Amino acid sequence: MKTLDELRQRLRQFARERDWEQFHSPKNLSMALIVEAAELVEHFQWLTQEQSKKLPEKTLREVEQEMADVFIYLNRMADLLGIDLLDAARRKMEHNAKKYPAHEVRGKADKR
Amino acid sequence: MKTLDELRQRLRQFARERDWEQFHSPKNLSMALIVEAAELVEHFQWLTQEQSKKLPEKTLREVEQEMADVFIYLNRMADLLGIDLLDAARRKMEHNAKKYPAHEVRGKADKR
Amino acid sequence: MKTLDELRQRLRQFARERDWEQFHSPKNLSMALIVEAAELVEHFQWLTQEQSKKLPEKTLREVEQEMADVFIYLNRMADLLGIDLLDAARRKMEHNAKKYPAHEVRGKADKR
Amino acid sequence: MKTLDELRQRLRQFARERDWEQFHSPKNLSMALIVEAAELVEHFQWLTQEQSKKLPEKTLREVEQEMADVFIYLNRMADLLGIDLLDAARRKMEHNAKKYPAHEVRGKADKR
């Protein structure tokens, strides 16, 4: 699986084969997405920032799986809503580049 | 911007130019990610599932921007942790395919 | 345990006895709180709204426990920050009553 | 407003006067609750743990309002589901006291 398009195709098939399309409204998928995001947060809740940068291999593999879940639901939702995530990210970054000019915000916390 | 790799490169540069690398610990990025996920959820909180499938164009454009934000933080975090999201998603889907065989779970709610 | 004040006292003692005060920064507690909120959301993610109003007894008991966890972290955090939750809620409701006059917003979705 | 019971009464009336009961399914309220929890997290996302312990007065007042919102939705949801939050918290703490005996977990991160 090499592209987001291929991922979306597979997710469509996965849901169809299980008759899960009935559960996959954008509303429900937004809930599933935030639940997975929280499972990611859970790994970091009691760590210091420094510890979070040097995760033990086992934790890193768990974190990777939670990130995969977020990624999966985000792409499933994007597919249903007809959203191109790479293109949306490109436009958001152009917007952010204007909103936070490097020389003005340098070293100040990201307020996005 | 055509690939996830290109997105990661741009996010790296964006943070570097603003001296934001100091804020971008995995711990902090997991918080930023869930905050954006919640801004996505907010759009759907009072909608019925049917309404969430037929968003007005204006809401859809806002939803798209929140999804872009989640996507951006997810890719930024993946870059810092050395995680390949497409590959992690592929492996997670293979795992899910075994865990939820189509003939067993058909029509029952996704329990991921 | 009859009052919020008693709950706060017990939470303080619970953390002290376990030497958990070192983990309980407001930052970390906000993360723990949202993780518990997501465990609550997880129970509802694939349900219809109607189903969410008629939970099976077993699910209701699990939901109750997740709500207890959110409540616990919220009170722990309030204690550390010197916040009186009942008083803060009272003031917020007075603010909301002015912001959303009943005759203006009747039947329109809560936009808080 | 001195008690949780009084808060619940007021929340009921607030929703009734605005005809918002139609939006207040447990599913939707769990979404509203996590959205408010995320607004709380947002205040802390780029802070160090030390900074989160010494919030400027203005930030503390904003944090207080977000906590009030979480508290409001939690109590509204508890009312609809017939849950007594103080009693549920008491039982959860008794459960936690057995699950995490002080002498065993002392100084190890809270794994709730």
From TrEMBL, chains A, B, C, D:
Pfam families (UniProt xref): MazG-like (PF12643)
GO BP terms in the entry: nucleoside triphosphate catabolic process
SUPFAM superfamilies found in the cross-reference section: all-alpha NTP pyrophosphatases
Tagged with keyword Nucleus: no
Entries under InterPro entries matching the protein: dCTP_Pyrophosphatase, DCTPP
Gene3D superfamilies given in the database record: MazG-like (1.10.287.1080)
GO molecular function: nucleoside triphosphate diphosphatase activity
Keywords: Hydrolase
PANTHER family xref list: DCTP PYROPHOSPHATASE 1
This protein's name: Nucleotide pyrophosphohydrolase
Annotated organism of origin: Sulfuricaulis limicola
Organism lineage string: Bacteria, Pseudomonadati, Pseudomonadota, Gammaproteobacteria, Acidiferrobacterales
